[in-house]
Write a structure and sequence with these properties.
heterodimer; A: alpha+beta; Alpha-Beta Plaits; 9-stranded mixed sheet; two-stranded antiparallel sheet; 5 helices; 11 strands; B: alpha/beta; Rossmann fold; 6-stranded mixed sheet; 4-stranded parallel sheet; 23 helices; 19 strands; 14% strand
Amino acid sequence: MPEEAPFRYRIRFAKSAPLRFIGHLDLHRTWERTLRRAGARLAYSEGYNPRPRLNLGLALPLGCTSQGDLLDVILEASWESEDLCQALHKAAPPGLIVEAVWPVPASTPPLQREVSACEYQVDLETTAAAAELQEAVQRLLSSDSLPRERRGKSYDLRPLIERLTLETSERAERPRLVMQLAAREGATGRPEEVLLELGLDPLAHVPHRARVLGPSVEPG
Amino acid sequence: MKSGDLSRTLERLLPGVQKPARYAGGELNQTVKDWDRVPLRVALAFPDIYELGMSNLGLAILYDIVNRQPDALAERAFSPWPDMEAAMRATGLPLFSLETRHPLCDFDILGISLPYETLYTNALNMLDLAGIPLLTADRGSTDALVVAGGHACYNPEPMAPFIDAFVIGEGEEVILDILACVRAWKGGGQPREALLRQLAGVWGVYVPSLYRVHYHADGTLQQVEALFPEARLPVIKRIVAKLPPPLTRLIVPYLDIAHNRIPIEIMRGCTRGCRFCQAGMITRPVRERPVQEVVEGIERALAETGFEQVGLLSLSSSDYDDILELVRAVSARFAGRHLDLSLPSLRIETFSVELMDLLQGNSHRSGFTLAPEAATERMREIINKPVSTQQLLETARAIYQHGWHTIKLYFMIGHPSETLEDVQAIADLCKAVLAEGRQLIGNRAKVTAGVSTFIPKPHTPFQWVPCDTLEQIQSKQALLKRQLRGRGLKLNWNHPQETMLEAWLSRGDRRMGEVVYRAWQRGARFDAWSEHFQYDAWLQAFQEADLDPAFYTHRERPIDEIFPWDHIDAAVKKPFLTEDYLWSLQGKTRVDCRERCFACGILPKFAELRRSNPGEVWECPEVRSPSRQRAAEIIPLVPA
């Protein structure tokens, strides 16, 4: 429990199915309202148009679900982490799940600067044989560059893929694609681009962001 | 399509459409009941997109009331945007409710909100997408009962072929009466007509299929004939004697909607009597909500929603008796909580410097809105909004002095007897206001002129008036566009063709239903959206229906003409409207009726209601002596 201002907290949360079509700005507003309902007063910036001091780590592509997402807030008052966690849990809308809350030193760099990569999981809805898929994954990994175009801009997807594996097991009904994609400023890999590169239909799959790599994701 | 299949199809469509959250539901404070265990199911539909429908307070109130009934549920539906409509039609996905994703045709009642006329084709489109027969006459005993309400329903006739029952007036109580009728009828093996006749007996309900309309050879109305004993003539509007407590458990949308705020109605009705204003006539009598109730409502709603803004709603905020006390109380109670307070519809002559200071401390918007409606004193007398130009300029100065940079001025062109000089005066007045601002704050001062076109509306003193023609509107707008340019000036206007559509429909008769139907068939929808509005489809629809659009808009109506909406009784009597119209022609004005009662008709109509709700609940004078009329005639009976 921090003893003097600024009272900065990190919130780790999950975004489940009901929220998967909620974009970044809408999620920002949703958090503002959740905090207000919880009675946790946000500190505001100075100036002509004061804004609440709330910082969402990394935008999640529309249509994805997530866990281990991060949010930093600065509050007007000090809270016990446990109390804040419970209050937020009660105030959160359906589909927004609070995993953990802990104080972070005011000197911690902003989330955006700390994030380096994310891990996505995609349960594949495909009849293609596992062997063929495995081959496609290998082909992709062994290529030096994967030129692609997105919104009229061409770029190379290959350096953004840090890791890509296909997990199959007897027990799981469907194979699962696990990808670690770069998430640095100006170098963000998007899961649907990888799916397209593998010849899979992005509209038929719901990527799940399982981890954000870089910032501290645990209390202490 | 079953609910499970529907959900699967939907989940596949959503990633491919714009703003999928419009169709996903699942927001905080939505009510989801167990479909199989609730016998009475109501779908509440707003015939435009989610962002507009979710900003409609009426729909939210009805949703809450129905869901409070143990044996009833209410779910929401909105118009799909064209991309979603195409996807739905391609996959056979019917229009569904957001809460449990049931097709709308599976509900007992489909309630459609019709606050304005340009939603009519969207309403038809919703019926079609839901798989409900469009015409009342084609519906059977298993089809949903289609009910419509909202201000546009004060002239229900253009939508009469499609709507089983209209609610005329306020919905808070009548919705329960309608539920009671459906509850009693459902499963009883009686034909649909039995339900409709039962509904016709409810105060405030109009069942158009129980009436026949007769016309003169020239197309004007001769008579509306009641075909059944239950069909009342006239149909008196429903009102609540006292405003029910404000709704606080509002659904909190994830999307950025039109009005992101806690809406608290502080007052219903208006005592001013502006002659162009339909809302001011049809929402009488004026009823105010006590300050304490408003403040407590905000407190509860904040805890339940977390909204960042509060809108104190009424037709004329500064006329609220204790407006200063209210704003002081709200400011004091919520100080330091970053709550943005909006108080729309302030009148030029009645708000004070203190009010301005309080608002400035609570609001971060840069513009301040005033609505002089006309730019010359002569014209303002005709429309009965008598404010002097001097007063307007003083108010503008005070606004610039108190920290605002932009003043928005609302005007209308097309008022009765308006000339190009009156239009020129709009430009002159805007420049005069800007000049005041320049003197005080220099080049930061801005004026935005919002100039809409006057459309004569039913139940107003101007219901006899011809509407400007396209050519007249275009030449007036051209003048304004030439004049209102340059630094600090901005002009917003309405497209004249869109004005024409609203004008045709506003004073349409029952024959207009065919025009609406044919326009929809020709692809008209989202008529309120400029990018979708199809003027030609409407002109062709008129031609196919063998009707002349000009008959509905540009004709000066004789003072004794029977109107298609005369059998709908808004309780302000026609002789009062007639007198007021004739007064306007002489430039005679009326003061605020808080100062003096002009006997508009409200009190005799609702004498019993007023007597049982004495004191400050209403702004009308009290009724002391027992009414000479029989109570049964005044307050229609509600079925047991």
